[in-house]
Each structure stands twice: as structure tokens, then as C-alpha cells.
Amino acid sequence: MNRLIPLLRREYWENKGAFRTTPMVIGGLYVIFLLMSIFTTARIDSELYTLREAVRMLSDQTPEFRNALIYQGMLGSSVFFTVVMGFVIFFYLLGSLYDDRKDRSILFWKSLPASDTLTLASKLLAAMVVIPTFFLLILVATHIIMAIIGALMILGVDGNPWTLMPSMLIPIKAWSMIAVSWYAQSIWALPMFGWLMLVSAFAPRLPLLFATLPPLVFAVLQTWIEFLRTFTLKSNIVGVIGDWIVNSPAILTAEVHHGSGEVALGFPQTEQFDHSVNLINIADRLLSIEMLGGLVLATVFLAAALWLRRRATES
Fold first, then answer.
1. Would you say 265 and 281 are in contact if contact means Cβ atoms under 8 Å apart?
2. Per-residue pLDDT of the chain (315 residues; tens, 9 = 90+)
3. Quick check: 186 and 127 in contact, CB under 8 A?
4. CA distance readout (Å), 221 to 97, 234, 235
5. What end-to-end distance do the CA atoms of the chain give, in Å?
6. Which long-range contacts (CB under 8 A, 24 or more apart) does 171-175 make?
7. Which residues pair with 264 in a beta bridge?
8. d(CA 97, CA 163)
């Protein structure tokens, strides 16, 4: 542990733009768009009649309705963070074992008192824990800033923000659910993480091409052979990867549930898992046969990446 923490710090300092600055930019965009909408509304409606009516109508609703509305809105606001975080993790892992081979610094890092196993573990933990934690902290800060702006606007139209704001349990519940879904997604995505690290360990150049081209070629060949055998297009690797993506435990989309719009886990296109946002449905994915197979595949990929890392040289 004493050696792992410095390695994690190294990953942060070498990638702090992606780890820290990227979610800060997203949070800043949220706040800017909120302010732009407020100024636009004030420009069009100088008396703020629309806002007054919205506050009045919201005041007439039950506390349960307001709490549910704010809870769903907070969950929904995490979707853009989730998507961008996925891209950050993808490209971080793709370069995690490639960059020090590219700039020929691998012998320096291998000369330090840290094993290749710890090095690989630090990069995997950075993707699974450190990046989601930074995104979560900045998402929480964004929600708080937006809530303060909203409270000031309500005061500006002679409303009482204390009667409209939810109890503190609602934001805590929303933040906790987002955190659980993100960390569960880190486990669910282990096969992809392992594959990216394997590619990063062996690709001589253009790791993005090596990461995407083999699965694509394999899928095309598999589809062609299956079509020649049956003259139908049955499930192949594209279908397997597609099902894995749509059944993600991360909050990604919205669906109509019990007659109202609610956010959903993954993409509600299959009935293999329930897509309602709750801890039971997240646990159902992590304890499934699909997850067990994914862990086996991830272990193979990570073991191969470690083997290649141990045999890597400057050339």
C-alpha cells in the first residue's frame, strides 16, 4: 500500500488535465448554461412572469412530487458526466502502458522500487476509482452551485426557497446512487479495461486502431460465416458487446416508467435486466453470469498485459 499510493499520485499528476480539469469544464458548462437560460428568460420576460408562475405551480405540488422531480433531475444531470468520463477512461487506459514505451521512459520507471504488478494495478485503480471520484466530487459541487443560483432566483421573485428545496436526504440519496452506479460500472467494464490495457502493452503504434480494428474484423467475419451457414444474421460478437453496453449499471438514459419519465440504468432495450435505478438492479448485474464471464475475460487480458509489461524494452 505504501508503494501503491505514490503510484496513484503519479497517475494523477501525469493526467490531472483529464482527471480534474475535464469534469471541472463540464460543471462550468452546466453553470454557464443555467445562467444563460436565466438571463435569456429575463431578457424576454422582464417581469419574470414565467418564473413566478413556475414557482407558484411548484409550490402547489406535494413535497413528495417536488422531491421526486428534483431526485430524477439530479440523476439525469449525471448522464453527460458519465459519457465524458467513459471517454476519459477509454483514452487514459489506451495510453497507460503505451506512453512510456513511446517516449522511451519505460526503463526509468521499471528501475524504481515498484513491481510491474503494482504499476498495472495503480493504472487500473486510477481508472476504476480515482477518475470516478474526481467526477463525483465535481458533480456534487456543480449541484450545490446550481442550487444556490436557483434559490437566489426564487428569492428574486418573492418565493421561499426553503419550502421548495428538498430535504437533505434527497441530494444525498441522488449522489449516493450516482456513486454506486459509477463504481459498479467500473466493475462491469473490467473486460473492456483489461482489453485496453492489453492493447496498450503491445501496440507498436496507433493503439486506438489496434483496440478497435480486431473486434471489428472478427465481428464482420463471424457475421459473414454465420450468414453463409444459415442465411440469417444471428447474434455475434457485435450482439454480445451491444448487450453488455445496453445493460450497463451506469445511469445513461431516460425511460417512461409507471406513466412518468424516469432515468434508467443503461439503455432499456432488453428485458435481460431491470433498468430501473435502484441498488437491487445494480447488484443483479454485478452478481450475474455475464459478470462472472466478464471477470474471467478481464483476468486473461490483464494477465497478458502484465506478461507483456514485464518483457517490455525500449525498443
1. yes
2. 677 888 888 888 888 889 999 999 999 999 999 888 888 776 776 666 666 676 777 776 777 877 888 888 889 999 999 999 999 999 999 888 777 776 666 555 556 666 778 888 889 999 999 999 999 999 999 999 998 888 888 777 766 667 767 667 888 999 999 999 999 999 999 999 998 988 888 777 777 777 777 777 776 776 666 655 655 444 566 677 778 888 899 988 865 554 456 788 888 877 788 888 889 999 999 999 889 988 998 999 899 888 888 776 544
3. yes
4. 29, 13, 13
5. 31
6. 171/70, 171/74, 171/143, 171/147, 173/71, 174/70, 174/71, 174/74, 174/75, 175/74, 175/136, 175/139, 175/140, 175/143
7. 253
8. 53
Q: Establish how many alpha carbons lie within 13 A of residue 128's alpha carbon, considering only the half-sphere containing its beta carbon.
A: 17
Q: In this structure, how many other beta carbons lie within 10 angstroms of the beta carbon of residue 103?
A: 9
Q: Is 12 left (phi over 0), alpha (psi -120 to 50) or beta?
A: alpha
Q: Which residues, including other chains, have CB under 8 Å from residue 101's CB and lie 6 or more apart? A: 312, 314
At position 305, the amino acid (one-letter code) is A
Helix residue ranges per DSSP H, 126-233: 131-156, 161-164, 169-188, 190-202, 207-230
Amino acid in position 49: Y
Picking from 285, 299, 255, 295, the residue whose alpha carbon sits closest to that of residue 185 is: 285
Q: Do residues 197 and 96 touch, judged by C-beta distance below 8 A?
A: yes
Quickly tell me which residue has 473490467 as its cell.
Answer: 190
Q: Which three cell numbers stand for residue 37?
A: 437560460
